[in-house]
Amino acid sequence: MRKYEYKAKDKGTGKIVTGTVQAENENSAGKVLVDQGYVPIKIAIKEEGGFFSRLTNRVSGKQRIIFTRQFATLIGAGIPLANSLRMVAEQTEDKPTRDMVEDLLAQVESGKTLYQAFLRYPEVFNKVYLALIAAGEASGTLDVSLRRLADQQEKDANMMSKIRGAMTYPAIVLLVIIVVIIFMMVAVVPQVENLYRDLGEELPGLTQLLVSLSNFVMNFWWFIFLIVAFFVWFFIQFNRTSTGKRVMSKVKLNVPLFKGLFQRLYNARFARTAQMLLSAGVPMLDSIQISSEAMNNVILEEEMQEVAQVVRSGKPLSVALKGKPYILPLLPQMAATGEQSGKIDEMLGKAAKVYEDELDERIAAISTMIEPILMVVLAVVAGGIVGAILFPIYSLVSKIGA
After folding, report:
1. Which of 62, 262, 64, 66 is CA-nearest to residue 166?
2. Which among 355, 391, 10, 40 has a CA at the least distance from the CA of 203?
3. How far is Cα 394 from Cα 390, in angstroms, rounded to an integer?
4. Structural contact between residues 275 and 349, judged by C-beta atoms closer than 8 angstroms
5. Dihedral of the CA atoms 79, 82, 85, 90 (nearest 10)?
6. CA 292/CA 290 separation, integer angstroms
7. Is the distance from CB of 352 to CB of 272 less than 8 angstroms?
8. From CA 177, how far away is CA 173, in angstroms rounded?
């Protein structure tokens, strides 16, 4: 599909309009315009932007949520699919999102299903999204599926916002510690060294250590920068490998203080996603597979593959979930209750709600716990540096006074 700029005459009003349209070729673009009630005057391929333009031409998670909510509202109001997409495109201000919706509209108007159109944007719509769209189209409940997606995306965004918010204060304090250390090393410690040199006195051991570190920082700051940049680059590249993803997944599930938070986050994701998929009529095995990928943790995904194998052999989900090291006990218990009552999707939703509430409590507790620890660290570091500077000065003043 290519993007074409057009100039056309509106058959109804006689006005000249301009815009863009997605089509396979120029003839297809003209057909799309005619179907929309326009008489094409000029059609030309739209020139693509440069590298920076392509880099920034992405649909953000926030824009995806807005699009989903608007689309669900229009479909729920009984507006035809193509008209709904056109209306969303017209009221969307974000250019990457508007371009995407216009392309989706062109795909639908060319005869493709909404699911087929969405398949063109795997970086925007994950497997959960696509599965619910496919189920909604097949069952005639597309508006319900879209509302569920919008609700779930908002919950995920809110949850991640809380986690990032809890980490903001520690990050700021660590930054302050680093700035204080750098300032002391660069501005204060050299002055103390000069003072002792002028008086012909020998520096105390701790102060001498600080002076050596200060000289190293001032003379080899570029080397330190390169080392930090290399480790950041290496970490990013390592994290993209299968081994790196596995290591990081394992760390998140076992790191002290944070492991309870991550375990509840992943269990909540699985339960909430499985609830949505099962409610939409997606088969159990497909729901397990898609939900495991939505957890975004390699270790848990492997566990869920084992769960799927057990379910495939004929055993219920509650039995398959038992005994897994990173599956919290409530999940199989609620699944068992759901299997007995015939409302497994509803029970999984309740399990997700419990985990989400516990997650909020964990985030608050960790924030409360980290703050005093960081303040102590800041006090020790700053106090140690200040002490190493002031005590020698006090000692010099005492000698001079004597």
Report:
1. 262
2. 391
3. 6
4. yes
5. -90
6. 5
7. yes
8. 6
Burial code (b: 16+ CB inside 10 Å, e: under 16) for 9-46 equals beeeeeeeeeeebbbeeeebbbbbbeebebebeebeee
Q: Mean pLDDT, to the nearest integer, of 215-219?
A: 81
Kindly give the interhelix angle for 142-183 and 259-279, rounded to the nearest 10 degrees. Answer: 160
Tokens of 387: 């002490």
Q: Is 383 helix (H, G, I), strand (E, B) or coil?
A: helix
**Residue 59: CA count within 13 A, CB half-sphere:** 19
The DSSP element (H or E) to which 38 belongs, if any, is strand 38-45
- Categorise residue 254: left if φ over 0, alpha if ψ from -120 to 50, beta otherwise: alpha
Closest CA to 355 of 285, 295, 303, 277: 295
As a whole number of angstroms, the distance between CA 198 and CA 196 comes to 5
Between CA 252 and CA 249 the distance in angstroms is: 5
Over range 87-105, report the average pLDDT.
Answer: 88
Structure tokens at 6: 């057009």
Identify whether the C-beta of residue 393 lies closer than 8 Å to the C-beta of residue 401: no
Q: What is the mean pLDDT of residues 276-291?
A: 87
SS3 assignment, position 339: helix
Question: Is the CB of residue 294 less than 8 Å from the CB of residue 273?
Answer: yes
Taking Cα atoms as reference points, which of 344, 295, 289, 347 lies closest to residue 316?
344
Structure tokens at 30: 């003209």
Residues forming a β-bridge with 45: 4
Contact residues for 68 (Cβ-Cβ < 8 A; gap 6+): 146, 149, 150, 153
Q: In the structure encoding, which two tokens stand for residue 35, read together?
A: 């179907």
Q: State how far the Cα of 142 lies from the Cα of 137, in Å rounded to an integer.
A: 5
What stretch of H or E contains 351?
Answer: helix 344-401
For 329-355, the pLDDT digits (tens) are 999 999 999 999 888 989 998 998 899
Confidence band of 227 (pLDDT split at 50, 70, 90):
very high
Mean pLDDT over each residue of the chain, to the nearest integer: 83
Neighbours of 155 (CB within 10 A): 16
Asked if 114 and 137 count as a contact pair (C-beta separation under 8 A), the reply is: yes
Burial letters for 95-115: b for 16+ Cβ neighbours within 10 Å, e otherwise?
eebbbbbbbbbbbbbbeeebb
Separation CA 254–CA 257 (nearest Å): 9
